């Protein structure tokens, strides 16, 4: 995309074509491109950049790869990657639609050093450190339906194209506000992730405290202060299993541990200990989940 081709319109400022970016050197790239037809571009394949790369999808659907993970980006989605994160289109294919991106070049930032944007960023050091740690804690971040950030990209694009008096200061202020807002959103997101992680940890401990017990979903939902529907949706979202299947998963995992650690095992006793109503019930679920019967699993891991 170093030169605009048939089927694309917009602006792309970069090292070989910096234009007004010479006045705002903390931005190493800015682009706002609209594609009216599908095209292939080697430059959009997974790549590394010298700064924090942010993409905002204005329209269309884009297949993206971040650190080897395939992600579909939809209108309103925001992706953020650190300098060491590979990201881009898996094949260089750019579908019809519109995408805006910006690369912010910090003075300092790597896995061992805190994020420091430099003298232009007037907000607190704590904001920069917080944002840097949040980005470093994950292999790329995608915020769904992040339409509240569109205003920043629209305004920066306008300022870069018009270059009216004081546009450098306006862009700096826009970016400061963007960074503060992004840090707030990511902090809230992380608190939610931590809370959800704590929920699954506590749920797992509760069930594992007595695997032989029957665990009605309504009872578990009530214990965690939720209705059955919300509880079911949350457990499925966080574990990939509906509640009853998650309970079975924990029972199978416990059985696997005992089968590996024990030389001799009474499979009927093991079935009841792990909460199954019969050996046949246990064997059926175990075989479906592992591809082996409990006896075969024990034999394979103990050589007996």
Mind explaining what this structure looks like?
It comes from Belliella marina. Residues 201-300 form the HTH araC/xylS-type domain. This protein has helices spanning 125-136, 150-162, 167-208, 217-223, 228-239, 243-261, 267-273, 279-290, 294-302; strands spanning 8-13, 27-35, 39-40, 52-60, 62-66, 69-73, 78-81, 87-88, 93-94, 97-104, 108-110, 113-116, 141-143. The protein has 304 residues and is α+β, with helices and mostly antiparallel strands. The chain folds into 2 domains: 8-193, Jelly Rolls; 210-304, Homeodomain-like (Arc Repressor Mutant, subunit A, Orthogonal Bundle). The strands form 4 sheets. The protein has a 6-stranded antiparallel beta sheet, covered by helices on one side. It has a 3-stranded antiparallel beta sheet with strand order 6-5-8, with no helix packed on it. Helix 4 packs across helix 5 and helix 6 packs parallel to helix 9.
* CATH architectural label of the largest domain: Sandwich
Which homologous superfamily in CATH is the superfamily of the largest domain? Answer: Jelly Rolls
Tally of alpha and pi helices: 9
Low-confidence stretches: none
Portion of residues in beta strands equals 15-25%
CATH class of the largest domain reads Mainly Beta
Order of helices and strands: EEEEEEEEEEEEHEHHHHHHHH
Overall shape? elongated
Mean pLDDT: 93
CATH topology-level name of the largest domain: Jelly Rolls
Cα end-to-end separation: 62 Å
Number of domains: 2
Quantity of strands, as a count:
13
Percentage of residues assigned to helices:
40-55%
InterPro entries: Homeodomain-like_sf, HTH-like, HTH_AraC, HTH_AraC-typ_CS
Organism: Belliella marina
Protein name: Helix-turn-helix domain-containing protein
Keywords: DNA-binding, Transcription, Transcription regulation
